[in-house]
C-alpha cells in the first residue's frame, strides 16, 4: 500500500485495459514491456491498451511485478511462479499470448509459446486436433496430399493421448 | 495524458477527463471469472492466435512435430510452413557447411528436398560438394 509520498518518489504509470479498468504500476515494472517502454520514453505516463483485457492484464502485471524483483536469491521462487503461471486453460494461455505479443514482453512470450509447443510435441495430427478442438478443414484429397508430402515425418509412433 | 488517450485509444476516450487515479490498494478488483458475455460465448481457440505468435510457438518444434502440426488444419499449416522456421532449422542443421546467405532462400519445400537428397546421398548440390572431406556424410546429414 503506497503512501502519497512514495508514489511521488517512484515514477508511476497508469495502464488502461480494453475494458476501461485502470491499473497503477511502477514505471520500472512496466518498462519490461517494450511497447510500454517506448511510450514511457516518449514521455507518456498514461498507457491505454486497447488490445489487452482486464483479466489478462491482471495476470501480466503480476508477472511483471514478480520478474521486476528478480534477484539471485528468489530464482527458485520465480521458477515456481512461472510454472503456476502457465498451468492454466488454453483460453487463458491464448489470451495471454495475444497480450504478451502486443506488449512485446519477450521472456513471457517465450515461456507461453514454449508451453503451447509442448502440447503439440510428439502428438499425432489427430491428437493435436482433439487437444486444441480444431476442425480439420482439409478435404480428404487435400489431407491425403499433405500427408504424402509429410510422409517422412511418419517414421515413428506418435502419442495419441490427449494429456 | 489527454493527447495520449486520443492517439492510442480513440474508441475509449469518453471518460478520460474524469480519470481518478486509483491508489495501488484500491486497484480495480475484478473477479477472475470472466463475466463479459462476449468473451464467454466465443472461447479462444488456437486458430484465433495471431500468425506471428503461432509461428513463435512452432519455432520450438522439430521436423516431425511441424509436419503433424501442418496436417492438423490449414491455419496451423500456414504457421508450420512459415519460411523463418525452415530457415532456422536449416541453419541449425547445416550452417557450418553452408554459407548463411544461402539459407535465406530456404523454405519448407527446399528444406525437405535437400533433406531427402542428403538422406539418399545424392550429392548433386554444388554446395554439398564442398563438404569437408574429413567429415563423415552420415553424421552430417542425419
UniProtKB/TrEMBL annotation, chain A:
Q: For the SKP1 component POZ domain, which residue ranges apply?
A: 11-69
Q: Does the keyword Iron-sulfur apply?
A: no
Residues of the SKP1 component dimerisation domain: 108-153
Keywords carried by this UniProt record: Ubl conjugation pathway
The pathway to which it is assigned is: Protein modification; protein ubiquitination
InterPro entries given for it? SKP1, SKP1-like, SKP1-like_dim_sf, SKP1/BTB/POZ_sf, Skp1_comp_dimer, Skp1_comp_POZ
The record's subunit annotation is: Part of a SCF (SKP1-cullin-F-box) protein ligase complex.
What this chain does, per the record?
A: Involved in ubiquitination and subsequent proteasomal degradation of target proteins. Together with CUL1, RBX1 and a F-box protein, it forms a SCF E3 ubiquitin ligase complex. The functional specificity of this complex depends on the type of F-box protein. In the SCF complex, it serves as an adapter that links the F-box protein to CUL1.
Question: Member of which family?
Answer: Belongs to the SKP1 family.
* Protein name, as recorded: SKP1-like protein
Automatic annotation (TrEMBL), chain B:
The protein's name is: F-box domain-containing protein
Q: Which Pfam families match?
A: F-box-like
Alphabetized InterPro entries for the sequence: F-box-like_dom_sf, F-box_dom
The F-box domain, residue ranges: 54-91
Under the heading Gene3D superfamilies, the entry gives: 1.20.1280.50
Coiled coil ranges: none
Amino acid at each position: 500500500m503506497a503512501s502519497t509520498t512514495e508514489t511521488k518518489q517512484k515514477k508511476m504509470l497508469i495502464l488502461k485495459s480494453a475494458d476501461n479498468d485502470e491499473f497503477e504500476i511502477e514505471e520500472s515494472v512496466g518498462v519490461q514491456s517494450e511497447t510500454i517502454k517506448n511510450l514511457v520514453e516518449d514521455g507518456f505516463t498514461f498507457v491505454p491498451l486497447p488490445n489487452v483485457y482486464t483479466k489478462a492484464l491482471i495476470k501480466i502485471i503480476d508477472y511483471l511485478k514478480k520478474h521486476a524483483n528478480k534477484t539471485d536469491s528468489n530464482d527458485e521462487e520465480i521458477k515456481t511462479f512461472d510454472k503456476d503461471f502457465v498451468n492454466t486453460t488454453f483460453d487463458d494461455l491464448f489470451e495471454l499470448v495475444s497480450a504478451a505479443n502486443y506488449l512485446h514482453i519477450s521472456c513471457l512470450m517465450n515461456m507461453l509459446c514454449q508451453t503451447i509447443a509442448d502440447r503439440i510435441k510428439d502428438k499425432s495430427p489427430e491428437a493435436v486436433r482433439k487437444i486444441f478442438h480444431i476442425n480439420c478443414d482439409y478435404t480428404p484429397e487435400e489431407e491425403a496430399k499433405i500427408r504424402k508430402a509429410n510422409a517422412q515425418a511418419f517414421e515413428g509412433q506418435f502419442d495419441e493421448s490427449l494429456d | 495524458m489527454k493527447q495520449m488517450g486520443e492517439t492510442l485509444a480513440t474508441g475509449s476516450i469518453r471518460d478520460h477527463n474524469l480519470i481518478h487515479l486509483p491508489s495501488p490498494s484500491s486497484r480495480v478488483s475484478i473477479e477472475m471469472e470472466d463475466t463479459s458475455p462476449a468473451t464467454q460465448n466465443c472461447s479462444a481457440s488456437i486458430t484465433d492466435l495471431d500468425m506471428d505468435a503461432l509461428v513463435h510457438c512452432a519455432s520450438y518444434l522439430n521436423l516431425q512435430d511441424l509436419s503433424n502440426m501442418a496436417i492438423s488444419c490449414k491455419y496451423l499449416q500456414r504457421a508450420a510452413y512459415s519460411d523463418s522456421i525452415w530457415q532456422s532449422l536449416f541453419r541449425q542443421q547445416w550452417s557450418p557447411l553452408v554459407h548463411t546467405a544461402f539459407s535465406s532462400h530456404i523454405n519448407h519445400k527446399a528444406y525437405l528436398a535437400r533433406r531427402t537428397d542428403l538422406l539418399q546421398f545424392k550429392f548433386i548440390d554444388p554446395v554439398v560438394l564442398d563438404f569437408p572431406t574429413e567429415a563423415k556424410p552420415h553424421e552430417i546429414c542425419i
